[in-house]
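Hello Y.,

Per our agreement to keep a running log of every chain we model this quarter, I'm adding this entry. I've kept the format consistent with earlier entries: sequence first, then predicted structure.
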Amino acid sequence: MRAWVRKRCGPPDSVLELATLPTPPIPTGQSSDVLIRVSHVSLQYSTEMLIRMIPILPLTGPWIPEIELSGEVVAAGAGAPSELRDPGTPVVAFQNIFNAAMDMASASGINGSGSTALKMLRTGGVREGHTVLVNGASGSVGSVLVQLCKLRGAKVVGVASGANEAMVRDLGVDEFIDYRSHDSLPAYLAHQFGDKPLDCILDCVGSQAIFAHSPAYLKPEGMVVNIGTLEGAWATTRNVLSNMYLPTWLGGVPRRYIMFSTTPTSDSAVYVAQLIKEGRLRIPVDSVFSMEDAVRAYERIATKRARGKVVVKVRND
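Predicted structure for the entry above:
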């Protein structure tokens, strides 16, 4: 099989190599293993950052980036779940998608983007009647989050570049804000929502300024849920520790702050896949690159301007 591997840390265009690796063995006997022929892989911005920063550990061998995929079952051991034993069964990662009518490029985003957006929604307690700000509404997670918030009956304010306004409005936002049109986004938010504060801020970008000034436009019982690392890994770590643990009497912000990364779960993937099957949710795809062009795909995601998922098509058939 072919795979892009990283043998050292650095920019993707200089450290990724397209290699030929041994094909995994066919599961036999009572094995619970499932062999999947990968169709599409969705890239994560965080992975691009890890490729640059995280050193190779001794004795670990080359690293194959990314975990979010769609494909089909090739073979399975007798100990595998019954729904995964038939060759040709379409899957998202390792979860059956019930033959939902969706293209495999979109399906490859169910686990990472779908699970993360769902967890943000639930953590923020978004419900009918709430007014919610989604920062990064045109991104891979934000675009799903906007739709999930609308399904909950919330009023959604979407923040993104003006170039993506049409796309974000098409997702159903009630109000659109072009962050590039304002010298200070927090000042604009204070002007717009100072007398009618937001119930929740869901930040897919990682803007420290939005949280730091949030008392001016976020309800006292509201919270900021963040998954972004806009300011880099070290600054984000410092900010998270300060935001979560610095007492208000020492200058801490008097609003709740939650930062998390999330491991995709089967239950979340199934729930999101069902919404897609019912036509109530879609996962926007920014672009699809061939296997040979995976480095260009990482260049695209590194711009932070992708509108939805950036996908690598592994199979040419």
